[in-house]
Amino acid sequence: MIRWIRKQWKSSDWLLYALTGLVTGVLTTTALELWNAKLTVPLTYWGDALATADHFKTVMETGWFTYQPLLGAPYGQTYSDFPTAENLNFMAAGVFGFITRNFMVAMNLYYFAGFITAALTALWLFRRLSISKSVSLVLATLFALAPYHFVRGESHLFLASYYIVPLSIAIVIAAIRGEPLWTKPPLGSKWYRWLTSRAAGTLLILLLTATTETYYAVFFLILIAFAGVVRLIRTGEWRRFWGAAIAGAVTAFALFLNTLPASIYAAINGQDPASLIRARADSEIYALKLSQLILPWAGNRIPLLQHIRELYDQKYPLVSESPALGAIAAIGFIAMFLVIGYVIATAVRPRVHAPHFQERFGLFVQLAALAFVAFLFSTIGGLSTLISFVTSSLRGWNRMSIYIAILCLAAVGIMLDGAIRWLRRKSNKGRITQRVIAFAICACVLAVGYIDQTPSHPSATYPATISAFERDSTWFARIDKVLPAGAEVLQLPYQPFPETVSPTGTQSSDVLIPFLHTTDIRWSGGGIKGRPRADWPGVIEQYSPADIVKLAAASGFSGIHIDRAALEPDQSKKLEQGLAEALGAKPMVSADQRFVFYDIRKARATLRDEFTQSELKKVEAAVVSPVIADTSGTFVSTENADGMTVERSVSPVSPVPLTSANTKPISAQLLGSVTLVGLDISPGRVTVSLPDGTQHVISLIKGHGTISLPIVVPPGVSGVTITVTGATTAKPISIDLGSLVVRERAVTAFLAR
Q1: 3-state secondary structure of 740
Q2: Do strands 685-689 and 716-725 pair parallel, antiparallel, or not at all (unpaired)?
Q3: What is the DSSP code string of 236-283?
Q4: Checking phi first, is residue 432 left (phi over 0); if not, alpha (psi -120 to 50) or beta?
Q5: Is 35 exposed, middle or buried (0-12, 13-18, 19+ CB in 10 A)?
C-alpha cells in the first residue's frame, strides 16, 4: 500500500489535490471552530450577510435572483435595478440549494466550499509554475486561509469565493512569459483537439472570471493588458500581444453579457437614479496602503500583533476595509519589491549562469512586476483614481489585495524551493534526512501562516448569533400564524435598500430579516431604492399614525411591522401610541422588545364597508405609486440648532427632481417647510418654481415658512426648484427643509372623509 502511494505521488498530482483539499478542510474547520456553529444558522447575521441570504433564498424559491415577489410589496424586489455580474455565484446558490433545500445551510456550505476550491485552484497554479509538491500544498492552503477570506466572510460571500483568482492569474503569467494562449494539440480529431486545447482552457477561465465577480474581472483586465504590452515591448511579438488582447476582449465581452439583462431592463424602464450611488472620492477611501498590506491583520491570534493593527487602524486615516496579506505573503511582497529595486538599479540579471536559476529568477521578476502594477492601481492616490474620472461604479480597489496575495505566495514558493535545494546541497546527509528537512520547513511555514492568518476565537459570537436568529424565527412564526398566505405587511420606518444606514445605526439590510424567516408573507421592505414602487413607504410614513393605518388598509395591507431599533425612542413611542389609538387594540411585541406588529385587517374590513372597490383602488394606486421628491442631490442631512434632523441646502438654487411612475399627469399638493439659516435678520426670500414654470414666493416669518402649493406632476421625471435670494449679510445663506412631499388629491379627499 505504501509503495502504491509513493508511486502515485511521484507519477501524478491527484493524490496531492486530495491531500490539499483534506488539509484545507480540516484547518478551515479548526480556524472557524465550526463545531460550535449551527449549520442552519448563518455565521454572520447582520449587514450584507442578510442580503447574501436573500439571494440564496430567492434563487431557491424562484430559480434566479432577479425577482423576489415577497419583498418590496406590492410590486416585488427587482434586482435588475442593481446591476451585478456575479452569476456563477447565483448558479452555485442553486446547486447547493438543490442539495440541502435550506437556504441557510446552502449559504454556509458554499462559504466552506470556497476555502477548499480556492486551495485547489491555487495548487493548480503553483504546480504550473513548477513549484514543488510539498511547498505548493502549504502555500495553496495558506492562500485559502488568507485574512481576506475571513474579513469578507459571509457578508461579502461572493468576494470571499475567490477561487477564480489563481486561474485568471495563470493566464496573465502565461501572457507575460510569452506562452501561447490559443493553441490546440496537433493530433486527434477536430473536436477532441479543440476540447483539449489550451484555447478551450483559456476560454473557460475567461468566462468564469467574467461570471464570478465584477471586481476580479476588472483586475484581470488590468493585469492582462500590462502583460501583453510588456511582452510586445520586450520581444516585439505581435502574435503574443494579440493573444493577450483577445483574452481581454473575450473577458470584457463576457462581462458585458452578464450585465446585459440589467442594461436591457434599464433601457426599457429607465435608469434607476439611486440604486448604485458611488462618490468618485470612494476610489481613494476604499483603496489600500503599503503599510496595511504588511502589518498584521485585525483578527490576528497573537494579542500583541492584533494590538499593533488596532492602533494603526485607530490612529491613521483611511482604514478602508482593513486589507492585509498575512506574514508569509508579506515576506514575498517585500522580497519582490527588493528585486524590482535590484533590477532597476543594475539593469542586468544576477551573475549566476545556471539555466534553472535564470528561469526561476525571470519568473520571480515577472511576478514582482505584476504585483507592482496591481499595487499601483489599488493604492491610495494610485491609477484607480484616474479610472474614477471615467466611472465611479468601482470603488473597492483594496480588494485587489487578493490578487497581490496569490502573486506573493507564488514568489514565496520560488524562494522556498530555492532554500530547500540549497540546504540539500549543503547538507551531507542522506535522502531521508533531506526530506525530513524539507518537511520541517514546510510544516513550520504552514504553522506560522495558520497562526498568523486565522482569526482569534471566531466562535465567540456564535452563541449570540444563534440566539438572535432563533429568537427572530420564533417571533416571525407567530406573525405567520396570525396572517393568511399572501398577506402584505407594511414595514416601518422605511429604510431604503440597499446600502443605507438609519439615524440609529441599523443597516438597510435589516429590512430583510422578516422575509428570511417567513415563506408566504409579502413585506414592503427590500425593494431596490430609487423608484416610486420601492420608495413609497417613505412617503406614507410622513402621515399621522391614524392616516397611516387608513392608507395601508386601503392599499390592501394586513399588518404594520415596526423595527424599534431603527427609530429614536421618542419617535417609536409616538408612532406606536398613535397606531394603537387608531386601531383600538394592543400590538404584538417580540420577546426582545425590538419588533412590534399591528394587525389592521379589521380596519381594512371597515373601509370596504365605507368605500367602493373602485374608490379604494384609486387610493391604493396613489399610495403605492406616489410622486417621489428626491432631495439627495442638493440637500444634505444634518441637525439644526434644536437637534432635529433636517435637509440643508448646499447652494442658493436647489433643484429637486420629482419622479412619477404614472402614465398621466397627477394633480396634487406640494407640502413642506423651509427655514433660512445663516442670517442675523431675515431679509431672504424663498421662491419655489413648479414643473409648469410658475413661481411662488413663500411667506416667511422670522425666517420660517410653509410650502403648500397646488401642483400638476407630469409622467416621468420633472422637478421643482427652491431658490433663496436677498441675503444682505456676509454670512452664507442656506435652507433647512423640514419635509417635502407631493400629496395626491385622491389621498387628500380619502383622508378627509
Answers
A1: strand
A2: antiparallel
A3: --HHHHHHHHHHHHHHHHHHHHHHHHHHHHHHHH---SSSS---TTHH
A4: alpha
A5: exposed
Do 478 and 588 meet the contact criterion of CB atoms below 8 Å apart?
yes
On whether the CB atoms of residues 246 and 182 are closer than 8 A, the answer is: yes
Q: Are 55 and 93 in contact (CB under 8 A)?
A: yes
Other beta carbons less than 10 A from residue 486's beta carbon:
12
Pairing of strands 522-523, 559-563: unpaired
CB atoms under 10 Å from CB of 449, counted, come to: 24
User: Reduced to 3 states, what is the DSSP secondary structure of residue 495?
Assistant: coil
Q: Where are the alpha helices (DSSP H) in 483-542?
A: 513-516, 532-540
pLDDT higher than threshold 70 for residue 159: yes
Length of the chain, in residues: 753
Mapped onto helix, strand or coil, the DSSP state of residue 672 is strand
Task: Please say whether the structural domain 628-752 has been given the CATH code 2.60.120.
Answer: yes
Q: Delimit the domains of the chain by residue range.
A: 484-624, 628-752
Burial class (CB in 10 A: 0-12, 13-18, 19+), 139: buried
Look at strands 488-492 and 559-563 and give their pairing. parallel
Is the CA virtual torsion 525, 531, 533, 537 positive or negative?
positive
Q: For the segment 578-587, what is each residue's pLDDT rounded down to a tens digit?
A: 999 999 989 9
Query: H or E segment at 717?
Result: strand 716-725
Per-residue pLDDT reduced to its tens digit, 375-428 = 999 999 888 888 888 887 888 899 999 999 999 999 999 999 988 888 877 776
Note if the pTM is more than 0.90.
Answer: yes
Q: Are 207 and 201 in contact (CB under 8 A)?
A: no
- Please calculate the CA angle 456-462-466 and round it to the nearest 5 degrees: 170
CA 677 to CA 404: how far, in whole Å? 50
DSSP alpha helix (H) spans, 298-354: 303-315, 327-346
